[in-house]
Amino acid sequence: MWEIEVLDALQNIHTPWLDKIMVAITSLGNAGILWIVMAAVLLIIPKTRKAGLCMAIALILDLLITNCLLKNLVARTRPYDVADFTDLIVKKPTDYSFPSGHTAASFAAVTALFMSRKKLLGAISCVIAILIAFSRMYLYVHFPTDIIGGIVVGVAAGVAAGFILRAIDK
């Protein structure tokens, strides 16, 4: 399976310091906490309130689509179980693998920022989102197609949130 080959190849770049960095990066996406906090901060500041609202709507849409619908519908086994990989350096996730929730939330937030015309914050957040997505494969908890699925769902949720806000404004 090509996806296991990709994940196995990533094991060749592991070092103790990179492991610590990847665990820290992936933890930014745990429960979408980074993006939830960012949305809350943006909601508090009057000048960025619409961007915060767009992020909040995108994150709610993503949660419903990813965690309430797709993960349970697809019910994909995690790669560490498929490949009998025992060298995990993070706690085993207990939910299904597809799509990556960390990735979906990250790209929902990033897309919402771009839809809100917050280009600089969106660009910085995009780098973080890409690192979070990569960390999920590095840590052997998601297949590459889980990441791709998470990006698609996240972007769709962010775009939908942008259109919802524009419709409300009219």
What does this protein structure show overall?
It is built from 8 helices and no strands. With 170 residues, it is an all-alpha fold. The protein has one domain: Orthogonal Bundle (Vanadium-containing Chloroperoxidase, domain 2). The relative contact order is 0.19. The model has no long low-confidence stretch (mean pLDDT 96).
How many domains in all? 1
Briefly note the CATH topology name: Vanadium-containing Chloroperoxidase, domain 2
Question: What is the second-level CATH architecture?
Answer: Orthogonal Bundle
Query: Which outline best applies?
Result: globular
Poorly predicted sequence stretches spanning 5 or more consecutive residues:
none
Number of strands: 0
CATH class annotation: Mainly Alpha
Strand content: under 5%
Count of alpha/pi helices = 8
Topology as a string of helices (H) and strands (E)? HHHHHHHH
Q: Name the structural class.
A: mainly alpha
Taking Cα atoms only, what radius of gyration do you get, to the nearest Å? 16 Å
> What's the rounded overall pLDDT mean?
96
Helix content: over 70%
For the record, give the distance between the C-alpha atoms at the N and C termini, rounded to a whole number: 49 Å
Instruction: Characterize the biggest β-sheet.
Output: none
What is the fold's blueprint, element by element?
Elements: H1 2-10, H2 16-28, H3 33-44, H4 49-74, H5 79-82, H6 101-115, H7 119-138, H8 144-169
Helix pairs in contact: 2-7, 3-4, 4-6, 4-8, 6-7, 6-8
Transmembrane segments: 21-45, 51-70, 120-141, 147-168
Subcellular location: Cell membrane
Pfam families: PAP2
